[in-house]
Structures are given as structure tokens and as C-alpha cells.
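Supplementary Data S3. Sequence and C-alpha cells for construct A.
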Amino acid sequence: MWIEEKTFTFRISLEAHFPDDYEGDQDEQAWVKEWERYIKPVLLKNLFDSLRQYPAWTSHVRNRGKSADDEIEVALIRDFSPEADNARKPYG
């Protein structure tokens, strides 16, 4: 089987800004915990909900050995092989 690939990077950088008198780690990085607990799960759910609108494509999380705290790779696959599910039709 012939496989072609293209990589697209969607990077999110988190920052927290504090007043000048901040001593560091006073909040025990509550802002990171907020990202991990609330924002990231909703973002991933919405991403996969959106991708499901294109039934000719399949998607899944792919682990390349990095911690999910630092990186989540999503594999998006379009299969043109005869063995592919014929029920998957391109959109439009």
C-alpha cells in the first residue's frame, strides 16, 4: 500500500501573567491545572466532533512517546484503498 503524509502543526502556547510583587508558584500553577482539567478536554472533544462531520476521513489520537501533558497528536486518515469502507463518502 502506498502512503503519503503531510504534517500540520496547530500549537497552543499557554502563558500566565502576574503582578510585579508575585513570588512565584504561589498559586501552584492553578492556571495549568485549569487548562488540563477544563479547557483541553473540551477543546479535544470539539475537535473530534468537528472531524466526524467528514465521514470519508477517520481520526484518532496517536502517541509518539511524549506525555499527553505536552503533546497530543491527532492522526487524520483518508483511505482510498479498495478495502476501505464503501459507506464512507466524501462530503459535498
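Construct B, processed identically:
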Amino acid sequence: MVRLSPALALLLALATPLFAQAPQPYAASADAPFQYRVRAGDTLPRIADSYLISADAAARVQRLNNIGDPMRLAPGTSLAIPAALLRTEALGARVIAFRGDVTIGRQGPARVGMVVGEGVRIATGANSSVAFQLSDGTAVTLPSLSRVRIVRLRRVLISNRVERVLALEAGRSESQVTPSRDRSTSFEIRTPVSVAAVRGTDFRVAYSEDQAAATAEVLKGAVGVDGKDGGIGLEAGYGARSDVHSTGKPVALLPPPEILSPVGHRRDGTLVFNFQKTEEAFAYRLVVASDADFRDLRSEATTKTAQAIVPSLPNGTYYIRATAIDVHGLEGLPVDIPYDHHLAIPGDLAGGTPKAGG
């Protein structure tokens, strides 16, 4: 588990366009300088040509390490190189699915296959969603009324460390982060009141502008959350609510709710999903997707009753995900089931059946 301080936010430079040609400085942080082990044949100019941002950076490394002759470096020795002097390569994320009103910064409406990079803001409207994927397979899904900005998406050439920093400005996100063997590779989702950092896990982050509060919920792996009064660790099955006063404490997520059969179909075309109500649940959320990975979201509903109503769907097979929400606003563990929707005649009140054990 990787935990990063909110102070990092003060140290990031303005995001750089994805395909900028000039070498870009690696964002300075509280981390110690990178330790480079000298190999046979290395010279300081050669290292600078491959890994540093400028000739001036090489001179600074020479002074910092008390190097007398930059052309003669002893193999096996270590050079301390400040992170801000390391050359990086801009990476991109690719839109893999979207539905409804989705805007991608100045690039306009979303398109499948569109590549986005640093500085780009992605926003979804009502009844809309988008999913984008990073080069390592990590996927981020934004449901309706969500807004995220890509703060940093870069690879450090000297170490192959990959930095992925997203700022969730409003709404919700779900991330499926591909595990990395490199312990220095990071994935962060920041909100105005918290930073959630991982190496490889499935987790959700939400931020409410009205309440100035964020939630983080871990479905798999572990997440470090930093906030106003320090950091906490969240294991799978736990979440926390952070605000301007506190990082919060780990809270066990509610178990998956039970979806009752059959699914009702009203005469106006809307579908009715019923839950087995429990005392612990303050509300329920239901998502309908066309794929089992829940990246192509078709509809979603949040309700304080034991009944969720979603718009009509064309006949076909869908996937249903349901969660219970507690009094803290933490969304619980999900239940995912396939759903065959078939409406034989107009006005049919039993439009389909969830498949048990899906």
C-alpha cells in the first residue's frame, strides 16, 4: 500500500499537454532523491542525455554528488538525483466506452478511442457515463454528474516509474487498478479534502461539493487515505468518509442487498427493481450495464426506498449491480447479476428476471 501526503498537491506544476515535445520536469515531492547506480561505461553527460531534463541539471547533479570528473564515474557507486531533474514521458488514457452527454476538455464530445492526457477535464451529464483505460489496463469509470481532471500521467525514464494522479472534482468514480510490481508506481485520486493512493486494487471515490466531503470504499486490495488530520489505511470491505475537519475512520461496508424477483415493468416502459429492505441501509443504488465489467453504463438509480426505478431498455441481456448505502454515505459491497430483459407485448408487467448466482 502506498500513502502519499496531501502536501504533494502543492508541489505539482501545472499539467502539461499530452504530446509536448520538450522534456518535462518530474513533479517534485517529499520523496528522497532517486538513487542511480552507476554502470560500466557511464558518464555524467551520457546519463544527462538519456535521463535528465537539461545540461544545467547535469551540473547540479555533479555539484550535489561532489563529482570531480564527469567523464569518469566509478561503476557500482550511487548518484543522488533530485526528482525534479528527471526526464519524463507523457502518457495517455483512451476512452473505451461512453453514453449520453460526456465532454472531454476542449476536445469536445467524447468518442470511443479518443486519447486524453494531462490537464484534460472529463465531465458527465445527467444519465451519462464514461470509462477510460490507461496503458497498463487500469480502468476508471465515471457515472452521471461526475467531473475529473487528469493531473499527472507520466513515466519517469530513468526508473520506469509511472505516475497517475486524478482529481475528482464532483461526483463518483470507480477504479480497477492493475497491480504493479514496481512499488514506486502510484495511482492517486484526489478530492479537495482527501487523497486516496494505491498500487493495485478496486476501489471507489466520491466527492460531494455541497457537503465538502469525500468517501472512499475498497472492494479489493488496500488503499491509503490522507486528509486533514493524517492518514488511515483501508482494507477490502472497508470505507471512510473524509471532510474538511477529519480524514475519518475505517467503517465496515454494508453487505450486498438482495434483489427480489421478478423485475416489474410499468406501462410507461420503466423497470422496477425491488430490494429486500434492511435496517442498516439508508439508501440503495442500482446500476444497469451492457457489459459484465460495468464500463458501459446504461442506467442508474439511487433511492431511499426498497424500490429502484430505471428507464426502459431494449430487449437483451444486461448486468445489474446493486449496493446498499449507510448513514455515512458509504456505498457497500456490490452484488452483480446478469439480467435477461424480454418484453413480449406492450404493457407486459413482468419484463425480465435476474439470474440467480450471477
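Confidence is low (pLDDT under 50) at residues 1-30. The chain has three domains: 31-86, 90-252, 259-354.
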